[in-house]
Design brief:
220 residues, alpha/beta, 35% helix, 19% strand, binds D-xylitol-5-phosphate, binds zinc ion
């Protein structure tokens, strides 16, 4: 199984984003958290910033929208060149329509589930989406502890995807470290977002390498 590490720039230096993104060129993508002060309390950045990130990043740009009304705003992130656009099912009025509208721009579309959101009602959407994000923290901030109790839902999601031979990636986001990545991997995740464990201490490239070693430590 090929595993992907997507550092989250939420824990990077926001006034030096170009340099911060250059430090993670060994990653498989850069995860960009868009927060609107409505769906979550925090505010981060929006489409102007993402447009520049797309221009300067050497790795694919993975946009995680923590915003209200993704039906209206999500496709715009595909139009400006995001590789993948993830929106929260809790915020969408028309999940299927929003997936298709993102894909119509040429971007991959992903659906995110908050910790309190059950996976089963969204099974039909797994057939359409390019990725399913199981949040392992409450969305809204970096640096929170990994919610191990999400592993049951992760099992449910990963098992459904495997049993139906779906191409959707299974992403986890929140509290991913060298200690928790192998746990999430064992429960079926293949794409790992890591913010503070990449950027908050030490060298980001070395931290990415350590996450890859942790991932391979569990290789059967
Ligand atoms: C949380 C964000 C995450 C965040 C992860 O709402 O979606 O992407 O940056 O940060 P860590 O890895 O520090 O939990
Ligand atoms: Zn995120």
């Amino acid at each position: 199984m090929s595993l992907r590490i997507y550092p989250s720039i939420l824990s990077a230096d926001f006034v030096n984003l170009e340099a911060e993104i250059a430090r993670i060129s060994s990653a498989d993508g850069v995860h960009c958290d868009v927060m609107d002060n409505h769906f979550v309390e925090a505010i981060s950045f929006g489409p102007q910033t993402i447009r520049r990130i797309v221009q300067v990043s050497s790795v694919p740009v993975d946009v995680h929208l923590m915003i209200e009304n993704p039906d209206k705003f999500a496709p715009g992130y595909g139009e400006i060149g995001a590789h993948s656009v993830t929106f929260h099912v809790e915020a969408a009025k028309d999940v299927e329509g929003t997936i298709r509208a993102i894909q119509d721009t040429g971007a991959r579309a992903a659906i995110a589930l908050k910790p309190g959101t059950a996976a089963e009602p969204y099974f039909p959407m797994f057939h359409l989406a390019d990725m399913v994000l199981v949040m392992t923290v409450e969305p809204g901030a970096g640096g929170q502890p990994f919610l191990r109790e999400m592993m049951t839902k992760l099992d449910t999601v990963a098992t459904y995807v495997a049993d139906h031979n779906l191409s959707a990636l299974v992403q986890v986001d929140g509290g991913i470290t060298v200690d928790t990545l192998p746990i999430a991997r064992a429960h079926g995740a293949d794409t790992f977002v890591a913010g503070s464990s990449v950027y908050s201490a030490g060298n980001p490239a070395e931290n990415i390498a350590a996450l890859r070693v942790a991932a391979n430590d569990t290789e059967e």
